[in-house]
Amino acid sequence: MLFGLATLLSGADSQAAGKRSSSVREVPIYTNVSESSPQVIDLGHPTYVEMMDVNWRGAKGRDNVMARIYADGTEVWSGMIPAYDPTFRTSIRRTVQQVEIRIDRGSAYANWAKLYVNDEEGQYEPGNGRGHGHGGSPAFIGNISDADELARRLVHVLRDLQEQTSPEEVRASILPLKKAAARVFAISSASGQLHQTDVYRAVIGLEQEFANQEGFITGLLDMNLTYDSGLSLITIRERYKALFGSVSY
């Protein structure tokens, strides 16, 4: 299905001093996306897209499906779409004309997409104060409260997982993740927007711990008892990455 954003939302941009300012364009989808029916968003002309949110109703007929987003043919995001109602964010940060949403196998129902666009290319370029915090650390795309809430969810998942794993796994994998999550929660809830760099460093530490525990987390997906918890851990990790856009940890 093809949407012409330029036609659909041609009047959505606000004008300031004779120039086009940044804006958010919402594209209704409300259909199943599958291998045979990808969702193509045609911008009509080359447009600078900072990032995009996609809201999903969820995977159909299975626990989750793998979705991918392409900007002018280049993959910019991939992630698991669970069976409930998630919203995922991906950074694009380039001038593109077409964005495509694909599903590897199966299908998932997509509700809408929001594109954060600016026709003045370069407004979001690194070094001009947008997309980066004080001292060169990437700023949050979302809110500091997002980091706080994700840490809270992570601690709850790990707490439930303790009852499903061995004492050795608790000591070697769950407790290190809980400590890293507790640090993110404490700093983000206490510091707020004034100390984004501190929150960023805490999230870096959590991501490093996620990387250390990849084998453990992947193993959770192999057992019915721990599958949901493993999927939750992967989803939370991807959500943290989305807070910082395409930053490499």
Textual characterization of the structure:
By secondary structure, this protein is of the alpha+beta class. It has two domains: 2-125, Jelly Rolls, CATH 2.60.120; 144-243. It is 37% helix and 35% strand. The chain has six helices and nine strands. It has helices at residues 5-8, 144-162, 167-191, 196-212, 214-220, 224-243, and strands spanning 2-4, 15-16, 19-20, 23-34, 39-59, 64-71, 74-82, 87-103, 107-118. The strands form two sheets. Strands 1, 4, 5, 6, 7, 8 and 9 form a seven-stranded mixed beta sheet that branches. Strands 2-3 form a two-stranded antiparallel sheet. Strand 6 (64-71) and strand 7 (74-82) form a beta hairpin. The longest helix is centred in the last third of the chain and has 25 residues, at 167-191. It starts with a strand and ends in a 6-residue tail after the last helix.
Offer a concise description of the structure:
With 249 residues, the protein is of the alpha+beta class. It is 37% helix and 35% strand. The chain is globular and about 55 Å long.
